[in-house]
Design brief:
This protein has 180 residues and is α+β, with helices and mostly antiparallel strands. The protein contains three helices and seven strands, in the order H-H-E-E-H-E-E-E-E-E. The strands form two sheets. The protein has a four-stranded antiparallel beta sheet with strand order 4-3-6-7. The protein has a three-stranded antiparallel beta sheet with strand order 1-2-5. A hairpin with a 5-residue loop joins strand 3 and strand 4.
Length: 180
Amino acid sequence: MSRQATLGSVPAGAPATQGRGWGPRRARLVGALTGAVLVVVAGLVLWLQHGSSGDTKAADVVPLALERPVVSPGGLAERSGVRITHVAVTGGGGLIDLRYQVFDPDKANALHDKRTPPVLVEEQTGLVVHQLLMDHAHHGEYKVGVKYYLVFNNPGNLVRRGSMVTVLLGNAEVQHVVVG
C-alpha cells in the first residue's frame, strides 16, 4: 500500500513540526517593515515641522531695523547705554562671543526690543549673523557696571579672528569692530 502525500500533510518518517519555519522569519519581516514605517513617519513629521516653522501670520511679523544710526564706540554708550568690551570667535570657530558692559540700564533696555535685535555683519562678505546660540538672550533688568554676553552661531565659520564686523546693539551700530 502506498501512501500519497497530500498538501499540508507530513510525510512518513519526517519530524512533526508546526508550520514551515516562518515564525522567526515573519517576526524579522514584521520588525523590519515596522522600523521602515517609523522612519518614514518620523521623517515626514520633521519635514512638516521644518517647513511650517517659517509660516507666520502677517500680524506676528515684526519689522526688523537692520539699519541703525552709525555711532562711534563712545557714541554707543550714549545712545544705547552699553559699551562693547569683546568680540571673539570661540567654540572651534562655530560661535561668536559678544560682550558688553552696561552704563545706563534704561537705555540698555532697548536691547530687549524685538525690532532692534542684536546683529553682527561681517564687513567683507556682508554676512548677517543674528542667530543666538539656543536663542539665549538676557532677560530682566540690566545693572550698571555689569558685563553681559551674547553668543551667536557662526554660520559656516565665516567670521574669523581678524575679521571686521559691524555690531548692531539697541538703536545704534558700531562699524569696524575687530574680531579677536
